[in-house]
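Quick one:
INPUT:
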């Protein structure tokens, strides 16, 4: 009995020892909110809220437009040497495919993956059945590097299908209005490559319309001013796209329009496979293909 008591006391002493610094769980790369400046923390918290509210807004608009939409895929996977991914996809009659992807990266790979202390990324994509509205592609990221440098980036654009010119002008004007509201010259931060031949540097580039935005650079720091600008641009892009889609979703079209859509979809897939830096080199195939690959590609 004496030996049993001593053994029991020794066991409790062992398991109740306080954890050392080495034993304590280490904060995950890309998720260390406490290491940010007060303003960066505010922006980070707002980004988490914005991602939730914009996804809710996105799905509500699409489900109102196309009641046939049904959840098709819901993927969650984690790679400590790459990123954590969440992907949600719906498919329907008028909206053949729509997806949302959120990412928290776990490594830094400059110049684009620089969120060692904290980061979040969201992408939304829509492939309508009608060729009168091109694919929507919209991404938004907030990152704070291991060095404490914060950065915000975004890309939004409609791909070139068989859109009426007035729809392209509407998107261009709405985005211009947001830039001007924030005191920025609109044409300074448009996407590039529209109208370029499929040759040389642009051989595999997507068929965009350059009506959206391309905001990348050291000047876009993770502060309140930049966050307000990008959330305004991102929300305006999605809302305007939904307005256009509601107008065109059930209008008639012809084979020439379908041919333009087929070209757009093939070019998008080729862009992701051979041109887009992040799709080629970082975002895993299972993730980007689930969220934004066309529902059908014809050659």
């Amino acid at each position: 009995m004496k030996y049993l008591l001593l053994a029991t006391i020794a066991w409790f002493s062992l398991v109740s020892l306080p954890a050392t610094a080495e034993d304590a769980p280490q904060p995950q790369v890309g998720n260390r909110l406490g290491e940010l400046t007060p303003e960066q923390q505010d922006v980070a918290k707002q980004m988490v809220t914005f991602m939730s509210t914009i996804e809710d807004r996105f799905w509500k608009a699409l489900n109102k437009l196309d009641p046939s939409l049904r959840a098709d895929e819901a993927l969650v996977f984690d790679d400590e040497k790459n990123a954590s991914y969440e992907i949600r996809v719906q498919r329907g009659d008028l909206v053949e495919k729509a997806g949302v992807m959120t990412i928290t990266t776990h490594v830094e790979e400059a110049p684009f993956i620089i969120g060692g202390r904290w980061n979040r990324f969201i992408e939304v994509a829509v492939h309508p059945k009608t060729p009168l509205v091109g694919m929507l592609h919209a991404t938004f990221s907030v990152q704070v590097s291991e060095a404490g440098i914060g950065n915000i980036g975004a890309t939004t654009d409609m791909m070139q299908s068989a859109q009426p010119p007035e729809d392209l002008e509407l998107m261009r004007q709405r985005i211009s209005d947001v830039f001007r509201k924030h005191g920025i010259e609109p044409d300074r931060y448009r996407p590039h490559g529209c109208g370029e031949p499929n040759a040389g540097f642009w051989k595999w580039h997507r068929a965009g319309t350059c009506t959206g935005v391309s905001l990348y650079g050291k000047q876009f720091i993770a502060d309140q001013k930049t966050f307000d600008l990008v959330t305004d641009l991102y929300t305006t892009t999605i809302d305007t796209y939904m307005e256009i889609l509601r107008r065109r979703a059930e209008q008639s079209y012809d084979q020439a329009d379908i041919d333009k859509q087929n070209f757009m979809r093939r070019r998008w897939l080729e862009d992701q496979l051979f041109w887009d830096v992040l799709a080629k080199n970082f975002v895993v195939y299972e993730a980007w293909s689930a969220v934004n690959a066309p529902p059908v590609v014809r050659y």
